[in-house]
Structures are given as C-alpha cells and as structure tokens.
Amino acid sequence: MSSAERLARAALTRIIEPGDERGGRWLRECGAVELVRRITRKDGAAERLSGMTPKRLAGYRLRAEKAEPERDLSAIAGAGGRFVCPGDREWPSQLDDLGYARPTGLWVRGPRDLRLWALRSVAVVGARACTPYGSHMAGSLGAGLAELGWVVVSGAAFGVDGAAHRGALAVGGATMAVLACGVDVPYPRGHAELIGRIAEQGLVIGELPPSDHPTRGRFILRNRVIAALTRGTVVVEAEFRSGSLVTARCAQRLGRLSMGVPGPATSGLSAGVHELIRGEGVLVTDASEVVELVGDMGELAPVRRGPVHPRDLLDQISARVLDALPGQGAVSGREVARTAGTSADEALGRLYELHSLGFVERDGEGWRLTPRPTRRDDARRGGS
Description:
alpha/beta, 11 strands, elongated, disordered C terminus
C-alpha cells in the first residue's frame, strides 16, 4: 500500500465511524485517497456518491477538519505501535468477511504479529457484572486455551473479559484485547495496568485513532471485529440483552462457531447464554471442549467418564450372585443360588471368588456382605 493510501486511511478512521457500510462501499469503489478528496473538496464530487446526503456529508466534513493523520501515525509510533491496513502482510484476511463493514484499518500496540495470532484465536466474552462463578469459568477458559496454544481474544472490560485476559497471562499465554477507543487510551481506567500488560506481552488493537474515546455504540460495533477475527466465540454469563450475545450472533452470521458456558437455571445472568445454547450455540464447559470445536482434526476433548467402582468390573453372573446377598445378615449358598437364578454349585464357586476379592465373607454356614468401613464425619471435616 502506498504511503498516500495509508495516510488517507488513517484520516478516514477519524472521519468515518467503525462499521459504516456506506463509507465502506465508497472506500472500495473510490479508494481511500479519492474518497478523502471528495469529502474535503467542495466540487460536487462527494454529492454524487450513492447514498450521500447533505446531512451526512456535513458531518463527515466537520470531522475531516480535525483529521491530522500524520500526527496520529506519529502518536501511534511513539506509543510503540503501528497502523495496519488491508493488503499489509500483517492484515488478518478473515476480517474481509465483514464486507463493507470491514475496518478501514487497525491501530495496533504490541510486539506480536496480528495476522499469525489471529489464525489460532478464540473469543471469550461475557457479563461485566459477572458472578464469582462467571469470573472463575472465564479465567479457567483463558488459562486452558492459552495452555493449549490458542490466543484468547476479548474486550478488556470488567468482569468476564478481564478474567479471560488474566487467565491467559497467568500461564504465560497469548491474549489480545480489542478496544472500542484509541489503543493508547486505557479504558476502563481500572484496567490500565491489565491493558498495559497485554500491550507488552500480546496485542491491543482498535479501529479508532489515538486518543479517541469510546461511546455506547462503538462498543457494539467493536464486537463485530472480535467475532470476525476469531474462529469462535465463547459466552460466559450474559443476560437476554447483552453485547456478548451480539458478538456470538455476529459470529454465527459470519460462519464462525458460537459457544456458551451454562450457569444455574435460576440465574438471570445466564439466561442469555441458555437461550444461545437452545438455538445454534454449542454447550462447552472447559477449554478442551472449545478446542475440539474450533481446532484442527484430532484435537479432541478427553472422553468424560464417571468413577469406576470395583463391582463394575465383575462379570454378569458374579454381579447377580453379589446382588443376591441381603444388606444385613447371612444366607445359605442355596438361598443365594435361588435368588440369583443359578445352580448351587455355580453360586458357591462365585461366592468363593467374591470372597477372594473382598466382597463377601463366611458367617458360620452362610454368607454375608463384607462390612464397609464407616466414615468419620469429623475426619472429613479435618477433625482428629
């Protein structure tokens, strides 16, 4: 990309709002240099753009007066960052799936390669006012995904986002924050240290130029970048009206996977997640299950099994003989055979086998179950 085109795209990040599809269409039709020229010059060329209105053009021109792309590029360089545009080697091509809503460019802080990191990434998003359960699950997912070699992507917000980032950082893993403001603006302020750590060890990216501040609408529009950038989106705690569900549904529209971590059926904070799972979302409970869905062939979650008890290993006849013994008291071998539906000789042989295994014991002329050791409740509580 030419320096003039890069400069024009940097200017457009101040002129056109993120996700503006009309602006994206004009950008694709005209190119960045020509689009900036049409907006800034009053020669009638801008008015001929399809869908342009006097009110919209007036807004663009008002913003264009404050656009100083050279200053913004200098500011991002001073912060140790860069401006990445479509066509650059570092540009994640999956963002092109957004069509006309594709970012004009991305402002990036951090030492890692954005394109390479995005190739194997998963979004973990959820409620800001999450419960301790939600925070635990997000942190566990962040750490587990990072340990399995995946990049954890989130929005650096309070609650689930912050827990997912911290989980990845705690195990020395990879994490990326997508902000709804300039990448040099620590927002929320309470996460200034966290965002700084992510910029040092991972990547902080955003569509808005340096020093720009977030608005409510920009948070929603930011979510489409998270959805497009990653292979799938996991939602941990979300109410029915939640920006996290916007991210998951955007992921679905883009052909990505959407997943949800279930919570208590009575929890309003999990109601949106449960609705997502009832639809096209997939239930997941840990990082290995997420990777099984978004990963390559052979990256399977371990098979889940309950505990195996000694009597589960008995053959069918031995199990029937064992079940024929009463819970209390002793019975004769013939009574055992009658209850088990086998011959007396067969029952006696099985009883001796069960005796050698410690399941039964002799009681005079009869047989009874071996008493189980009693549990001491005080020992379970740590008493003496």
